[in-house]
TrEMBL record:
GO terms for biological process: adaptive immune response; cell adhesion. Residues 12-87, 106-203, 209-291, 376-457 form the Ig-like domain. The keyword 4Fe-4S does not apply. This is Activated leukocyte cell adhesion molecule b. It comes from Salmo trutta (Brown trout). Gene3D superfamilies: Immunoglobulins (2.60.40.10). One of its GO terms (cellular component) is dendrite. It is a single-pass type I membrane protein.
Length: 543
């Protein structure tokens, strides 16, 4: 006889109880028989089918497997006993007892007898967890936010109870949790479980008295004049108070069934200290200093401003605000680097000026339109020949406001006018003059006019003058040559006069003919040299 094995089977299922722990059958096997304390169950001879011997409750529930295991159908707790497999082989008889245990998981877990609410610091029976039809008896565990609760005999007290069904032998286990809540348990989820089965989570309303209140200011956008301001008093109690006293700049306003009070159309005078408190406990209060933001702005001048050219314009911007300001200017939607100044107005100063003053989210704007007017003045007139040389282009540049009208004293083949910008305009007229002209440009507006003239020669006269200019250049060259010849001739005449003078002076002192003859010879040679010099100079002049 060997040691006893244990087999665990599931309630209601067919259970297999192995013989000799499932060892192979011996070769000289003669007989196998299963029995229990109350009698034999079934037997099997070698090479024959098993025969059921039992006549009690097992008569229709037992059979033998191919490997000699005992099969018990529809197991119940009453099957928890020792079954013995007897094997006869040759001259040996062996017995193998097996202890059978029947287990059953609980059919469900649920929490009943729930508390209506939990009060902080007060032990309260939270609920009862129950599970039934189990074997062995189920062990119940309580959880808060998926973490197991351990009984400490103070804030957590757990008591359990087990009942056995006399008919089935299955157990029902119940567990009661007594719990002392904390403020953090407001949103806590409680569950209980047995084995791998959990109940549905439950939560509770946790009540506690108010210990602190806080005042909050609610508004759409920044707090500024004209806006509405809502005061909200929040309490940390549960349930929170429903009635409060609001202290509005020294005045007490009682509000019931609400935690809010709205102050409409606030002004800068609304700046100050505000409070709220619980009606039944005036010492429990909160306060807040509230500032109402404001921004005042005045611009002078404003609207449409008409001024004359050269005048001055005083610009004044006055501001008054509860905080630091930022000022920016634009002219005709273009940003200016600084505030405009108008000491001496020009036409380019005309335009729409806008100032934007900001303080945080507060914004104020104002604008004026400046129009500078004056008598038109012609700044420049000019003339030039066209690129093809067939026309004359006259230009008249003027400024004034309103826009001047440009008129010419002659008609042209085409006229071109530039855009009118900053009081300036340029007008060009193309003409073909057949005679010499004096052309007049006239600019005018409602304040007056100005005129300038341009002397224009014909295109034919200019062609003749061009040819005359070429002839004059040749005459000038001849004149220069003549001057040079005259200077050379003058030099020769002076030299000749000087020679004659010296000759006469010497004749008065000569005493011998030889000397006179010698002098004659020298004179002849001098005359020849002078003639040669004159011929040479004459040739140079001709060249």
């Amino acid at each position: 006889m060997s040691g006893m094995d244990t087999v665990i089977g599931l309630y209601g299922e067919t259970i297999e109880v192995p013989c000799n722990n499932g060892a192979p059958k011996p070769k000289d096997l003669f007989m196998t028989k299963w029995k229990y304390d109350d009698g034999d169950l079934l037997t099997q001879l070698k090479d024959q089918d098993a025969s059921v011997i039992a006549t009690d409750k097992y008569k229709d529930r037992v059979s033998m497997a191919e490997n000699s295991s005992l099969l018990i159908a529809a197991a119940t707790l009453k099957d928890e006993k020792t079954f013995t497999c007897m094997v006869v082989a040759g001259a040996d008889i062996s017995e193998y007892p097996v202890k059978l245990l029947i287990h059953k998981a609980p059919t469900g877990v649920e929490i009943t007898a729930l508390a209506t609410e939990l009060e902080i610091g007060k032990p309260t029976q939270l609920g009862q967890c129950r599970t039934s039809d189990a074997n062995p008896a189920a062990s119940i565990t309580w959880f808060k936010n998926k973490k197991p609760l351990v009984a400490d005999g103070k804030g957590i007290i757990i008591s359990s109870n087990v009942k056995v069904d006399e008919a089935t032998g299955l157990t029902t286990t119940s567990s009661t949790l007594q719990y002392t809540a904390e403020k953090g348990d407001t949103a806590a989820l409680f569950t209980c479980g047995a084995l791998n089965t959990l109940s549905s989570p439950v939560s509770f309303t946790v009540t506690y008295p108010t210990e602190r209140i806080s005042l909050h200011v609610i508004s759409k956008g920044p707090l500024m004049e004209g806006a509405n301001m809502t005061l909200k008093c929040k309490a940390d109690g549960n349930p929170p108070p429903t009635s409060f006293n609001f202290h509005i700049l020294g005045k007490v306003v009682k509000v019931e069934n609400s935690d809010s009070y709205t102050v409409t159309d606030v002004t800068r005078e609304s700046t100050g200290e505000y409070k709220c408190s619980i009606i039944d406990n005036a010492k429990m209060e909160d306060s807040k200093n509230i500032t109402i933001n404001y921004l005042d702005m005045s611009l002078s001048p404003s609207g449409k401003v008409m001024k004359s050219f050269g005048e001055g314009l005083a610009l004044t911007l006055q501001t008054h605000a509860s905080g630091e300001l930022k000022v920016s200017w634009t002219k005709d939607n273009g940003k200016l680097d600084s505030s405009p100044k108008f000491d001496k107005l020009t036409y380019s100063d005309s335009g729409k000026y806008e100032v934007v003053v900001t303080m945080g989210a507060l914004i104020k704007k104002d604008s004026f339109e400046l129009v500078v007017e004056g008598v038109p003045v012609i700044r420049r007139v000019a003339k030039r020949r066209s690129e093809d040389g067939q026309h004359k282009v006259l230009t008249c540049e003027a400024e004034g406001s309103p826009k001047p009208t440009v008129a010419w004293s002659v008609n042209g083949t085409s006229a071109d006018e530039s855009p009118y910008v900053n009081g300036k305009i340029t007008h060009k007229l193309t003409i073909v003059p057949t005679v010499n002209l004096t052309v007049v440009c006239t600019v005018s507006n409602e304040h007056g006019q100005d005129t300038r003239t341009i002397n224009v020669s014909t295109l034919f006269e200019e062609v003749r003058m061009d040819k005359q200019d070429s002839s004059d250049e040749g005459d000038t060259t001849k004149l220069v040559v003549g001057v040079i010849v005259g200077l050379l001739l003058a030099t020769v005449v002076v030299g000749l006069a000087y020679w004659l003078y010296m000759k006469k002076s010497k004749q008065g002192s000569w005493k011998t003919g030889e000397k006179e003859d010698g002098s004659t010879e020298e004179s002849k040679k001098l005359e020849e040299k002078i003639e040669e010099k004159l011929e040479e100079n004459s040739q140079k002049v001709e060249v």
